[in-house]
């Protein structure tokens, strides 16, 4: 069982040394899909999380605090310490959310990051 929450955020960036137009500052409305699962495969048993991987609201709050608030309406080159390709961003988001969720027995199964309406990357568990 996988549980997914989607987000959008707007940000500017440029790719140093890019051979094409992306070397120039430009913006994207990114779409981020975060899919998570239980590390033991068993859904919550008892209490508020009964029958859930994670409450949608809890997942939303974590992604907002750890990712969206740090990237939305930012110049990504100023806030991320790597070349801001969609691949590097998805890898970073995967690691940040894995660190945050692992104590509660939740794993990040997939990060899907759309940079444009027709271009996306995926970072997947194993
Ligand atoms: N593998 C990757 N290739 C490119 C990335 C990336 O992150 N990973 N990024 C860019 C640029 O950021 C660019 O803004 C997006 O590229 P592209 O899809 O080519 O942009 P367009 O939507 O304008 O292209 P269309 O020709 O309209 O499809 C470049 N490459
Ligand atoms: Zn771009």
Automatic annotation (TrEMBL):
Zn(2+) binds at residues 13, 26, 28. Belongs to the PTPS family. QueD subfamily. This is 6-carboxy-5,6,7,8-tetrahydropterin synthase. Coiled coil: none annotated. Pathway: Purine metabolism; 7-cyano-7-deazaguanine biosynthesis. SUPFAM superfamilies: Tetrahydrobiopterin biosynthesis enzymes-like. It comes from the Bacteria. Keywords: Lyase, Metal-binding, Queuosine biosynthesis, Zinc. The active site is at residues 22, 73, 115. Its EC number is 4.-.-.-. The gene is queD. It holds the Pfam family PTPS. The keyword Calcium does not apply. One of its GO terms (biological process) is tRNA queuosine(34) biosynthetic process.
